Amino acid sequence: MELRKEINAVFLYLKSIDVKIDKDDYIYQVESHPETPSLLAFSDAFNFFGIPNGAFNVGFEELEVLPETFLTILDLGEGHLILSYIEKKEDHFMYTDNEGIKKDISSSEICVLWTGAVLVAEGNDQIIKSSNTFYNKVLPGLVFFAGLTVMYFIGGWYLMGFSGIAMLGLFFSFEAIKTELGFESGFSNQFCDGSEKSSCSQIINSEKGKIAGFKLSDLSVFLFGTQLFLLIIFNRALLNDYYFLIFISLLACIPFTLYSFYFQMKVEKKWCPICLSIIGVIYAEIVYLSFNSREILNNYTLDIKTISLFAGVLTVFVGGYFLIKRALLSYSSLKKDADFDSRYIRHYPYFKKILTSKDPVLLKADPILIGNPDAPVSITFITSPLCSYCKEAHEFLQRIYTHYKDQVNIKIRFNMTGVVTAEVEEMLIQLLNIFHTKGEQKFIEALHDWYSHREADKWLQKYSITLVNRTSLLNKLVSVSYENLQNNFFFTPHYFINNYEFPVRLNKKYIELFMPDLVEDQWDIGEKNIPAEEFETQYGQMVDQN
């Protein structure tokens, strides 16, 4: 199976069951799985993200027992298997072909391709889809046309047309904001993240895509919101001044739109339909105003009072917007915390019972150890330099290290399987050398520098030196990675507390929350990690034999 093309089937399926996860990180987790591209890899990756799922073998005659949508492996002939998204219709099916494109297929045609391997997941039953057509469609439409009517009486057909375009731009801006905050939206679910080449969330949430320190979603709200808000302040006599100021602000937006277009095409190499729609509205307004540019330029009468009014409205609107957005960010964070707190009691004995419900895991290969080696609490952290979630995990562990340096030791184990490049491998070797030669503080600084940009060439230019013990360092890294793989710890980030595997579905915030209790508890950590020389030698012999 061609993972990069057929991954679209997975996200069409997740969309159908109202589950949203980061596409790039899901791809990374699947690629890191030793069984890729088998159905097991996709299933285990679902488990990593906390999505309950199951893989089954279902005969075609039992198709009616399956849900309306599911994933399956189809055989196109000559051993060419594809992972396909299936959507059951009344008398036919929708499926994704080997390019990830949805197509119609009849029952007789899909029967020929059927292999029986099916993957189904549990949807998000907390999302309630309203069936009230009035509030979903009719009411917004009435508000839209009421606004256009008011604009007609203020400035006639021309102002009404311009206001309609501005309201459309504000709608797209709000959709961008909702995507940034992680709120569900039927519109964004329909048009975003639906193919290999599109991802609204990736573009909108990218720190690299900021323009003058602001995200495109923020700038578009400023632009379109101010356009509509000014119409409440400016009267009919100031309309030409209004058009002139808006036209100048739109022209000033052109460099930002070009940068956004370049960023999507060349940097992220993915498109954001919402962002492209916002850019399209900006150019539509420029074209619209250009048709009346002669009258606007000949009749505007700007003075200091009008400019001050414009600046004042912009300041008030921007200030109000950031206050509202900050409140929404707090609400979103509190909601996520509440979701976890509703599942897990903030009670240490209960937390420990969940943590120790399985047998401890004793890993022998020497990790990178920072903190106090004799501390009562040991946190093992399996990570990968290419894992996007590991940056947040690194910052989280750094907080624990800063506050509990003498009471905890943190064991860092790198995974080198999957898609690690030669440059990243060299970075890990140099990083391990920094730990051994310059100490844990310089190691932490170098690791923090890596996660700040994750560009191997840039990092190596700063830290790389000629090594005489390169083979030995590489052997240590490979030994750790190989042991991780042998124990099926190929997903990252992965945590252990005192050798007990931390449950994937339990929020890592509880580690930080219960650190005082963990320190005071009397733990029987068990067998200490033994030196890795024997393990490394054994692995080296195994490689030579292969």
UniProtKB/TrEMBL annotation:
Keywords: Disulfide bond, Isomerase, Membrane, Oxidoreductase, Quinone, Redox-active center, Transmembrane, Transmembrane helix. It comes from the Bacteria. It is found in: Membrane. The chain crosses the membrane at residues 134-154, 216-236, 242-262, 274-291, 306-324. Coiled coil: none annotated. Residues 164-287 form the Vitamin K epoxide reductase domain. Belongs to the VKOR family. InterPro entries: Thioredoxin-like_fold, Thioredoxin-like_sf, VKOR, VKOR_sf. It is a multi-pass membrane protein. Gene3D superfamilies: Glutaredoxin (3.40.30.10), VKOR domain (1.20.1440.130). It comes from Chryseobacterium lathyri. GO terms for molecular function: isomerase activity. This is Membrane protein/thiol-disulfide isomerase/thioredoxin. Residues 367-455 form the Thioredoxin-like fold domain.
